[in-house]
Design a protein that fits this description.
Largest sheet: 8 strands, mixed
Number of strands: 19
Radius of gyration: 21 Å
Helix content: 25-40%
Strand order of the largest sheet: 5-6-4-14-15-16-13-17
Structural class: alpha/beta
Shape: globular
Number of helices: 9
Distance between the termini: 28 Å
């Protein structure tokens, strides 16, 4: 029997989440086309640090997704070229005082029950793990499952391994639907691409793509800055951050929040991130955000106080109000799936997201319970901007 469509699925977004969806869909035997209005990793992925974290997530659905992804990233590191720079460096969360340390103990206990490896480190242990840490810290927790990849390379190598047809520099202008309201492909600024399934992996712009299909997905941009130092000897061995970073990640505040995450890289520079604030798509430079990051990094590692910062960059995290990504089929539009809203964890959560999407596309058993990520949990009427009737 001839195929009705040239492709089984069109994925909108060539960041790491879209790339992981393409990779797993292809491994499941599907033919894949990927569309992006810019280059590979041209959005949130290219502005990320490459964090693969379990340490900052409390027990629950997101942590389950992170633990599955941690295993999948280890497998991908063996299968993909070394250019992805996978590094199982581990994470170190530090507490300035006894009260913060006790809070970390309670947090880690819940994580351990979910399968996280977390080992308490006393003040002396901290110095052994990170000799250049500031003195006087009460203790912390070591998370050996935390790791790192080069985000842009990871996206590019996943896409290459998928064999997907890439349509870069093409903006999607319509989600095409048939007379019954089901997806039949997309229209871009250059062509129509026919497929019975469309995956919205457009990152911070996923809400606009959802609008094209006539559904609401309240994805908002949350801006973040990262500092890059001059190349140094390996003065920071792990991903190191203070306990208040965990609260910043979970916060829904629109105001500027900053808690430094400090880490060395194989090429020498130290990365210092990250701030969070909701300012729309304002790409302006915030001197206050950069000042806070620099001060907090030097407080953690005094050795960095006189080190030159050679550049700063920023991007927009795709934020959803309940801090969980939207992953899976949208019951409001047959054939539409979403893989977006991961906020600052998209690189870490990408492989498990791709596996969930591939399971939904093929009707196979999902690797974990997908119900917490159902896109229609934000269901409200939206203006119809796509072709065809609403379902």
């Amino acid at each position: 029997m001839l195929k009705r469509h040239p492709w089984d699925v069109v994925i909108i977004g060539a960041g790491v989440v879209g790339a992981a969806c393409a990779y797993h869909a292809a491994r499941a035997g599907l033919s894949v086309a990927v569309v992006d209005r810019g280059p590979v990793a041209g959005g949130t992925t290219g502005a990320g640090e490459g964090n693969l974290l379990v340490s900052d997530k409390e027990a629950g659905p997101e942590l389950d997704l992170a633990l599955l992804s941690a295993r999948l990233w280890r497998e991908l590191a063996a299968a993909l070229p070394q250019e992805i720079e996978y590094e199982a460096k581990g994470g170190l969360v530090v507490a300035p005082d006894g009260a913060s340390l006790q809070a970390l103990r309670s947090f880690a206990e819940g994580q351990r029950k979910a399968g996280v490896e977390a080992a308490e480190a006393g003040a002396r242990d901290l110095r052994a793990l990170e000799p250049h840490l500031a003195p006087g810290l009460a203790g912390g927790f070591h998370y050996p499952q935390d790791a790192q990849v080069h985000p842009a390379q990871a996206a590019a190598r996943l896409l290459a391994a998928s064999g997907a047809a890439l349509h870069l520099g093409e903006e999607v202008t319509a989600v095409l639907r048939d007379a019954a309201g089901a997806v039949r492909g997309v229209r871009t600024t250059r062509r129509e691409i026919s497929a019975p399934a469309v995956v919205n992996a457009a990152g911070t712009w996923a809400g606009s793509v959802a609008d094209l299909a006539g559904v609401r997905l309240p994805v908002l941009p949350r801006r973040g800055f990262v500092l890059v130092t001059e190349p140094l000897p390996r003065v920071v061995r792990h991903k190191v951050y203070a306990a208040d970073y965990i609260a910043d990640v979970a916060s829904g505040s629109a105001a500027l929040q900053s808690s430094a995450v400090v880490e060395g890289t194989p090429s020498g520079p130290v990365l210092i991130g990250a701030t969070r604030e909701r300012v729309g798509f304002d790409r302006g430079l915030s001197a206050e955000a950069l000042r806070r990051l620099a001060a907090q990094a030097a407080a953690l590692f005094p050795v960095l106080a006189d080190v030159r910062v050679i550049r700063a960059y920023h991007g927009f995290r795709p934020y959803l109000p309940d801090h969980l990504p939207a992953i899976g089929p949208d019951p409001r539009v047959p054939g539409l799936l979403h893989a977006c809203g991961h906020e600052g964890a998209g690189i870490g959560l990408a492989p498990a997201t791709g596996l969930l999407i591939a399971a939904a596309l093929t009707g196979s058993r999902p690797p974990l319970d997908p119900s917490p990520f159902v896109p229609a949990r934000f269901d409200r009427p939206a203006a119809v901007r796509s072709e065809g009737p609403r379902p």
